[in-house]
Amino acid sequence: MSILLAVTLAAASTVQPSCSWDHPGVNPYTGKTSAAIDRYTDIPEAVRSTLKRRMEEGQSDDKVTITRDGIAGKSKYDPAIRDMHFGAASVCATVTRSKWSAQRQEPGAVYCVDEHCILVPKICGNVSRINRKPDAVAKAPVVAPPPVAKLGKPDGKDLGLVTPEPYEPEELTEKELAERERLQRQTALDAAKKPGIQEFELPETFEFETNPDGSLVVIDPRPLPPYLPSDGDGTTPGPIAAVPEADTWAMLLAGLGILGVAARRRQRRQPD
């Protein structure tokens, strides 16, 4: 039945091999959209049905701008327009628009199913066909998403975690070691110069030594801070004698003077 209808429509319509479309809107298409699509008998019937439904619902694939030398849209199209409908049932196999000015632009809608694309200019509604270029038809390659680490059971198995590599400290040169020790000593000196009470920790155990006179000496097992002097063998230096104050020197000199005067008087009292 569909073949008979197509043959009848083809016989009823006037097909011209070539004509010009230099004056859009002069001879618009006045027939039905479904009839125009059915005249394209090389398009499979299922595809034609889909095209007719989408055109009736206004579900276009692309909004294009038609110029003298091309058809511009989000997809790439060949500039040639073919099988354009005029009037009630006239069809032109090929149309030309060579007399258009370079600045002229006409909007249109494109409906595509597979490789079959229908162009409908807005100014005249002349249903026609265009070709979409192969690079626009080809689908973009599907990129697989990156694998997601799967979490396992609470016992820690198959958690998808990366085992960290063991840390290996870098070897320092002698110059770097000396600079690090200098910074440590400077930090300790700066901390000692700060006012207030310095915090310290008592050792857990103490060691004792016995002096020749029988007294006990407590030995602190903690190492000396870097800013304290040492005897060179790692032991704690002995107590440092206190420096007398000025008033102490005055009292000492006064006492010596009194002792000298007393000795001189004692010498005078002695007989010759």
TrEMBL record:
Pfam families: PEP-CTERM. Residues 242-266 form the Ice-binding protein C-terminal domain. Transmembrane segments: none annotated. This is PEP-CTERM sorting domain-containing protein. Residues 149-170, 220-241 are annotated as: Disordered. It comes from the Bacteria. InterPro entries: Ice-binding_C (IPR013424).
